[in-house]
Amino acid sequence: MNNSTQPFNTILFGFAFSPSLKTNILETSRVAHFFDSRLVLLHVGKKTLEKERNIEELLNQIEHKNLPIDIKWEEGDPYEIILNSCKEENIDLLMLGALQHENLYQFYVGSIARKLTRKVCCSVLLLIKPSEERVPCQHIVVNGLDAPETPVAITDAFYVANLLGSKQVTVVEEIRQKEIQVIVEDDRSLKKTNILKERLKHREESRVRKIIDALPKDLTHTLKIKTQSIFGKRGYSIGHYAEVVRADLLVMNAPKKTSILDRIFPHDIEYILSDLPTDILIIRN
Where in this chain does the record put each UspA domain (predicted)? Predict the structure, then answer.
């Protein structure tokens, strides 16, 4: 695969001086290496000699010494700084690291991450389980939502799977319950419901298979590929599925611009952001 197909040429990692900083730096630099990307490290806060020494000491410990890295220091509102930096630096992928048991979890993966995933100009990778030693990414789950952006998300999921040496990609089609407009009252209506479910599953799997079949063979030939239809709430269902199968990475379309009603009633990716099942890659084309 050449760089013309590389979706993540430049990665930005927004970091804080927390107990998990070393782990996050090691994990982020490792991802940048596998993605063959330039890494921009951004700290929103005051620049001090102690902080500079700290980050330099950590960078001396990364595994891939030839990785191109730039360090940026900015003071101000974290959301605005990260948003503007992604635009100014032509960032393709924004990475945010947070562990759920830390206070920073609410800071990065709470309201700021939700705002960034809706407004930022690039894709976003949320790391909830970084590791100092590499943990292989064996299984990637990607949404097969019937939406214009889905082919790009699926393509990028397969691209990432190849770069990380994954063994399996599962494409999940979430089918809303309201598409089954049958009230189960007896055996006849139950049979009718089951037939309708099978038809919907066949329709969704055929649609997704067409997307997969159109991918370059070098992205698919080494991978075990599975499709899975799920009936339930979008976002919630795929998040639960990713957790149950212990996926190492969940790939989703970026959320669309929302109305006031969408802010009141959570949907799709909001369910996942409120309770992250694993690392999540949010693709914006």
Answer: 58-126
Task: Please give the torsion angle defined by the CA atoms of residues 159, 139, 254 and 97, in that order, rounded to the nearest 10 degrees.
Answer: -100
Q: How many angstroms separate the first and last alpha carbons of the chain?
A: 19
Domains present along the chain, CATH in parentheses: 3-127 (3.40.50.620), 139-277 (3.40.50.620)
3-state secondary structure of 151: helix
CB count within 10 Å of CB 181 equals 8
- C-alpha 235/C-alpha 172 separation (Å) is 11
H or E stretch covering 87: helix 78-88
- Residue with the bigger pLDDT between 3 and 126: it is 126
Query: Is residue 37 classed exposed, middle or buried when 0-12, 13-18 and 19+ CB atoms within 10 A define those classes?
Result: buried
Write out pLDDT tens, residues 143-154: 998 889 999 999
Q: Which residues have C-beta within 8 Å of that of residue 10, sequence separation ≥ 6?
A: 37, 38, 39, 40, 89, 90, 91, 92, 93
Check if the beta carbon of residue 106 is closer than 8 Å to that of residue 113: no
Half-sphere exposure of 145 (CA within 13 A, CB side): 22
Nearest to 59 by CA among 81, 94, 86, 32: 32
Question: Could you tell me the CA-to-CA distances from 98 to 64, 113, 145, 238 in Å, in that order?
Answer: 22, 11, 27, 21
Mean pLDDT value across residues 160-175:
94
Q: Cα(13)–Cα(24) distance, rounded to whole angstroms?
A: 9
How distant, in Å, are the alpha carbons of 21, 70, 203 from that of 43? 11, 11, 47
* Residue 247 confidence (pLDDT) above 90: yes
Write out pLDDT tens, residues 194-243. Answer: 788 888 889 999 999 999 999 999 999 999 999 999 887 777 789 889 99
